[in-house]
Write a structure and sequence with these properties.
It is a single chain. By secondary structure, this protein is an alpha+beta fold. The protein has 4 helices and 13 strands. The strands form 4 sheets. Strands 7-8-11-13-12 form a 5-stranded mixed sheet, with no helix packed on it. A hairpin with a 7-residue loop joins β3 and β4. The chain is flat and about 90 Å long.
């Protein structure tokens, strides 16, 4: 499933495609220094890291957008920071469509002051693999998680045609201009009729014969090369232990 979003809706030239982040392994993000808390996310898919009942006896979220783990006295604990279905995409700066994207999740596992939630901020980076940058809890039970990845960079030409399509279009237009312009010239200027109106018709008539001659030539040369190669390989195999072959090989090894 594609994990992408266009800030201005269909037709915009800007798109954020986080599919490479989704398809990779869990992104591990460490909390602030001195905190043993960690976060695991895959953005548009549930993380591979899940909370078990021994870690979180009261957990209720079945489709976590990410999980938070930490060590409590005598027990490892875990909780979902939000649900995938609650994802809300938005721009980091509404005035800058290419300035970065973020996703907000809500409806996570509850604690004393309510359900957990998170804002995942994506930082454009030249690094190939996504990496966790930071995770901060503020206000309580709301986490701001920053992830850097090359996939987080805005694609400012989402609707642009590739070079392949441009080649096809330009090739087709060139052919139309060649045929149409040539026919118009032959009819109006040279007064040609019938097949003579086709541009350079006399040369196109020779094309099948030229292709046939080229094919015959290629096949003939291929046969000669094939038989010559087989003969050379057979002679080498038969004479591989001869003095004429052993001496050059030994000299090359010594050099």
């Amino acid at each position: 499933m594609k994990c992408a979003w266009r800030p201005n809706g269909p037709g915009t030239s800007i798109e954020y495609d986080l599919t490479p982040v989704q398809n990779g392994p869990d992104i591990e993000v460490n909390a602030a220094a001195g905190d043993n808390s960690k976060f695991f996310l895959r953005i548009c898919a549930m993380p591979e890291r899940r909370c078990t009942k021994t870690e979180c006896p009261d957990c209720t979220v079945t489709n976590p957008a990410g999980v938070n783990t930490w060590s409590a006295p005598g027990q490892d604990s875990c909780a979902a920071i939000g649900t995938l279905s609650s994802a809300q995409w938005s721009l980091q700066d509404p005035t800058k469509p290419a300035g970065g994207v973020q996703i907000q999740y809500s409806g996570g596992d509850s604690a004393g002051s309510g359900p957990r939630s998170a804002t995942v901020v994506f930082k454009c980076s030249g690094d190939g693999s996504p990496r966790g940058v930071s995770a901060v809890e503020s206000p309580p039970l709301h986490y701001t998680i920053t992830i850097a990845a090359s996939a987080a960079c805005a694609n400012t030409c989402a609707n642009c045609l590739s070079w392949g399509w441009w080649s096809i279009i330009l090739g087709g237009v060139s052919m139309i201009l060649y045929v149409g312009g040539g026919i118009a010239y032959n009819v109006r200027v040279r007064g040609e009729e019938g097949l003579g109106v086709i541009p350079q018709w006399q040369y196109w008539q020779q094309l099948p014969g030229l292709v046939y001659d080229g094919t015959v030539f290629f096949v003939a040369k291929s046969k000669v090369a094939w038989h010559g190669g087989r003969r050379g390989a057979r002679e080498w195999w038969q004479n591989r232990g001869s003095k004429e072959l052993r001496e050059p090989i030994a000299a090359a090894a010594e050099g």
